[in-house]
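Possible regression after last week's pipeline update?

I re-ran a chain I had predicted before the update to compare outputs. Posting the input and the new output here so someone can diff against the archived version. Not blocking, just want to make sure nothing changed silently.
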Amino acid sequence: MKYLQGIEPREYQQKIFETCVEKNCLVVLPTGLGKTLIALMLTIERMMKFPGQKVVILAPTKPLAEQHLNSFKKYLPELFGELQLFTGAVTAENRKKIWRTADIIFSTPQCVANDIKKNLYDLSEVCLLVEDEAHRCVKNYDYNFLAKRYLYQAENPRIIGLTASPGSDAGKIKTICRNLSVNAVELRTRESEDVKKYLQEREYEKVMVDFPPEFEEMRHVLLKLFNKYVEELKYRKVLFGPVSKIALIKLQQRIMGTLAKGLKNWNYMLGASACAQAIKIQHALELLETQTLESFHVYLKKLFDEAAKKKSKGVVKLVAKPEFNYVFMTSNELLSKKREHPKIQKLMEIVERERKNNSKMKIILFTQFRDSAVVINKNLNELEGIKAKIFVGQAKKKGLGMNQKEQKKIIEEFSAGDFNVLCATCIAEEGLDIPEVNAVIFYEPVASAIRTIQRAGRTARLMKGKMIMLITKKTRDEVYFYVSRAREKGMSKAIESVRDGLGEKSERQKVL
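New output (post-update):
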């Protein structure tokens, strides 16, 4: 392709590009298989077709927008056009000036959306809008506002959405397509015929661990306490149907919404308190079953601290209950005997084994919670030849948080081989240019197909890789594992059904 330097598109990239030339398209392609190159090829095509017009590349975070900018710089001739990065650090007035002269703008959606709302510039001269991590095109995310405004203002509109997975819910996929005004979907998985030949073999290992009897006893006591709160919610006629953490959070939002309207309903006020405590116990159960004993104990201690500060009457009552005190004392006793969740020991054995097999190995370990990442990191650094570091998001929680500069530094050190295990929370799932690793370890399964696909996509691209999943038997780990598997399998079917619907729609439009 003219102007593309130092890289040749693969067969599937060329096919997807050809669709994107003709139609607004949602591109579903696993992590690391070159979605950015498709966006770059389309940028060249559109700017040649509409000289003097601009291209806008949007990504949810500044590091990701910067990553796209660097990719474009690498594969485009220097004089092709002026490339600019918009961030919150650039003042709105300066962004207005830059907009006039820039040819390709890389930005977060918030930046451009704020500028458009203030009428600093418009999107009339934009001939291509690219929205990366397009599975976010739901609810009130700025991607939706911009896509709508773009189609209204642009003289020569073309939109593409990029994602590793839009999820398995056909309704949600339809919403994403509708919000992007997409009339074509290009889906590829690791098993697609035109993708397979470019990928390396990925070994899959499911590691089951037993839930210890002492943990089972604590769970039993917490469940009894949890069920009392559930009974109270049912008695107050505010909770109906199956009980889950999500159902309780939705109930809490509903009750708080009603109370916020100024309705002083005593039944609702007591229901709100019972619901809040039930959610806390559910969270404690999740930590006990799937995380580390230390993070579970830290959470119980936090509730004691909240009660001491009298943050809420409900918490004061909760920690005063004998069941709660029994669980707190038992976890404290087990920790004093150096007991931990069996996953920790199993994880250390796996990492040691992987290092013996390959002294230059690199591993990403994913876990849901920062407290777990801290405990895991501490344990792994006790192993000979293992140097682990934590990788978390920006929000400061218990003093643990990384700004984008710190995140970038960690990734550079990991790429350079300064350490060999990255203990990451969900921040490492999406988009970021993290180097190829020999193995991805899930400390726990996640029920989301999107997150599972993103995590797994970190390995077996350019070299053989492994995906290792730790599962505690007879806990929610097993439930999440099977839910995620079912959703992953359902994703292709859901996309196919939406794609067929889009095809029928465009045929109807032709007839009309």
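Follow-up from reviewer: compared with the archived run. The chain has a mean pLDDT of 89. Marking as no regression found.
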